Amino acid sequence: xxxxxxxxxxxxxxxxxxxxxxxxxxxxxxxxxxxxxxxxxxxxxxxxxxxxxxxxxxxxxxxxxxxxxxxxxxxxxxxxxxxxxxxxxxxxxxxxxxxxxxxxxxxxxxxxxxxxxxxxxxxxxxxxxxxxxxxxxxxxxxxxxxxxxxxxxxxxxxxxxxxxxxxxxxxxxxxxxxxxxxxxxxxxxxxxxxxxxxxxxxxxxxxxxxxxxxxxxxxxxxxxxxxxxxxxxxxxxxxxxxxxxxxxxxxxxxxxxxxxxxxxxxxxxxxxxxxxxxxxxxxxxxxxxxxxxxxxxxxxxxxxxxxxxxxxxxxxxxxxxxxxxxxxxxxxxxxxxxxxxxxxxxxxxxxxxxxxxxxxxxxxxxxxxxxxxxxxxxxxxxxxxxxxxxxxxxxxxxxxxxxxxxxxxxxxxxxxxxxxxxxxxxxxxxxxxxxxxxxxxxxxxxxxxxxxxxxxxxxxxxxxxxxxxxxxxxxxxxxxxxxxxxxxxxxxxxxxxxxxxxxxxxxxxxxxxxxxxxxxxxxxxxxxxxxxxxxxxxxxxxxxxxxxxxxxxxxxxxxxxxxxxxxxxxxxxxxxxxxxxxxxxxxxxxxxxxxxxxxxxxxxxxxxxxxxxxxxxxxxxxxxxxxxxxxxxxxxxxxxxxxxxxxxxxxxxxxxxxxxxxxxxxxxxxxxxxxxxxxxxxxxxxxxxxxxxxxxxxxxxxxxxxxxxxxxxxxxxxxxxxxxxxxxxxxxxxxxxxxxxxxxxxxxxxxxxxxxxxxxxxxxxxxxxxxxxxxxxxxxxxxxxxxxxxxxxxxxxxxxxxxxxxxxxxxxxxxxxxxxxxxxxxxxxxxxxxxxxxxxxxxxxxxxxxxxxxxxxxxxxxxxxxxxxxxxxxxxxxxxxxxxxxxxxx
Length: 890
Fold this sequence. Notes:
The protein is an alpha/beta fold. Helix content is 44%, strand content 17%.
């Protein structure tokens, strides 16, 4: 039994215990034939990443689950790892090299990749260190990286199998293209931002006619790629032009008028230009109508030779020059301000260009169908359940997935091309000879795979697939995935599809979608807004456990977290409450050994039976809440129990028994037995409460654990408390709740009448039935001690004494005799004067808020403050009138 120091110092305690846990290999998992498995694969953070509040939230919730299940006796695996984050990492390293005046092209591919690996080894594990600081109990011996040798083997194997089945193909298609990063982007790598632009109305002349149609566009520079103009088939305004030929301005090229239902009747004039090479919707329309695709913009966002005299101009420079030429030739009808969403690269913030290019794709519908069925059949359950609809919405409308990226860092496509016969070869190893023509002029595709492709293998490739490892057999499918809603489409769904395809089973049984952490105003936290709260700074200031408890307590299903530092400070106060309570209890257990206690000889009082019953119920509550991912309710239940029931009531009731003084002796003939009983109950409840708290607050609970008598080696390997049904005592809870309600009412009255806690007061209880009278009489010592009463009389149907204040608690009327303590008349007069004063203020304020002129001219914040003050007046008046009524009640 170690000493619990007077002050709680998180920094020293956290470093000590995390090192201890690692030294004991508590996080390590082994394949077991006797224990049921519980496994989680961590959503791999980018190697470029630093811990932000979203990471802190998700890591905390996963650790809560793992520690909880570990204590329940499950064979747990929390598998950690990091993602190579292709574009992000390449950008970081390129910026690093640029400071030295070097580009990746200066180095060449091989040397550049060497530099990225050097950077990864030096800086890539920063976030892993930060996760450890948060208390994450991952099995670090199984740390994986999406580009380690074993994982790379798995990625190549998946690519080859899908290709051989015809599910991977190569084709020209419209993709998101970043002109700065010079690569294709997935949808999730594109940030759509509202941009103030213009809508340009341009005349397109009808061939052999003086008529023209007016086309509205936000991107006139792409008109050189127009291969049609389109109208809606139901738009009677323009049906006369259907089948006619239009002359493309400036270019003087002829294009047809077509009809297609994708045209939005209310956009612009209802006639749109069709540019298949530069718009995804136009591309689809082009396929439907067999239109030519003309690419007019280079990969670097300059105009190509198809743009004629504008060749070589930046796309935006071309726009301005072209508009002047259109204006000069009288093709411009009008220009309107127009706000619209424009995609930007999520890394470099460059406006993305829809780009027609030759890329590699995965056919998704054949993979999606089994994944849809798996969720419909309940093989995967979402928490909260409404995210299932989001999953289905995307899966039902799924499109083929562009998986090739034009960067150097990542899994290079296992594809070789023969220069002589153009044959494509897919292989896991180097190919030197063409199997078709026998030629030796082969070269490997320079593209790499989308990072999400390798991430889709995470639940099974991390466990050793394609090898049939014991870990894969024991821990797959994993138990639960905890992640954010924003990657349901791009990661959760893809893991489901690949898991079913290559493992024949779902990758996880449940998906918990955690909240988004926002500031108090509801804005998403970001460094650009300056509203971030850095986890590491918070940990240094308040301790890890305070941060973890805050995030857990605020993690309500279906609601975002509105976080401010004062909330963390509030739960830091809870850590101090736990510390001080534990220190008090352990100090009073110096002469107590739980191993020597004979429970059958103890004589439990009402408060003992009550707190033991409450502990069993909170154990049941926490167990149920954690099983259902109601993290906030689990945290709130243990918070309320520990602070309000255990500390505020039970410990206070136990103090006189521990000192063998005061009125609290139901068994006055054996004060030692009363003390020992109180010690046992304090030990029993604190021991259990620490175990309930441990998954959320691992550090402080471990430290206190070692201050308890007869403690085991670590709380981390202690068992989760079990509910003892025989200890649940509804009658004791009902009786104790009555006493608490009575004591609280008396305390509130004393406070309202400003009666010092040091002054004892006489009380008379008027009750209506004998059973209530017996409960109050038998436990009168609690009432006297906790309500600071001098004398207590409990009677059935007694009259109100003179000079007393009356309080009603259910069917009990409590009379506090005030004549010796309070000047009743003076108190009444004081209350009357205060009420009159508030009435005058309320009348003036109400008159002003009824004045229409004031309401029309006053600033909104002034009106708001007046309304707030008005409500405060009303609340105060109600409270004072209640006090007066209590003093006058007959």
